[in-house]
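New to this. Please check this record:
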Amino acid sequence: MRSAQFGEDVGDAEWLADVAAHGMVRPSFVPPPPVRALRELTRYRRTQVAVRAQEVQRLDKLLQDAGIKISSVASKVLGKSQRAMIEALIAGERDPAVLAGMALGKMRPKIPALTEALVGRFAAHHGVVARAILDHIDFLDATIARLDGEVAERLGPFRAAVELLQTIPGVGQTVAEVIVAETGADMSRFPTAGHLAAWAGVAPANHESAGKRRPAGTRHGGAWLKRALVEAAKGAARTKGSYFGAQYRQIAARRGPNRATMAVAHSILVVAWHMLTTGSTYEDLGGDYFARRRAPEVETRRLVARLQALGHTVTLEPAA
């Protein structure tokens, strides 16, 4: 069944579950043309970004097949220095020292390692395929740039919402645009943050049978928004001194990185709902939020147990 509110395929069983959990009613709102246009552009842009990533992986695999181990030394296959080396290989250059000498900036100290990594068997057919891949990547870059321009032109009344969302750790320009395009930035359509999280597929689901309720991962929801939130969560989890980083570490230690990432994605969307509802900017709770919530004696026992597990004998004396 198709939801009239946001055009997503939603089954009756899931809607009944949402009604039971949140008191949701089947919405009747159809997104206005500006929102539909933004959604179409951001979704197509996402597909092109994914294709570009596949092409970069294909290029790395080709180089590995030719014995060229650039990715073993450099963090990116297609940085400025790496692109120059690949172009030279296509043009016929095979001297590892000459190729490594094309390194620029921070890559210069890696020249000895690059010289070893560039000793391979790059043949003519490798050059043909590499040329085709690079040309396709250039085409995709141009397409993505045009889509970025179209999205920027059509933001219009949503520009303030995009800028507001970017104050959330992990939420950059692209993710903020996806949140606006998928939700319309109109939080009145979602009575609570829980409704929005359930619709986006980042809220915990439960399986109930014979009166027993068991965790069942997350709900099915809007794949486009969910994917963007997961990317934002991974970035937010690496933010030092932030609440999201602390939340990720606490949950990952008990339930693993995947569930921790989804929990952070859920928190980001809940924060976005409140910000777009009230217009307030993001205020971080701090990386020590969970430590502050613990009672002092509980935190003391935890730290003592940790030190003892590391092989230390701990004697506590109260401070003067």
In short: The longest helix spans residues 33-65. Residues 86 and 130 are 8 Å apart (CA to CA). Residues 1-28 have pLDDT under 50 and may be disordered. The chain has two domains: 12-26+159-278, 33-156.
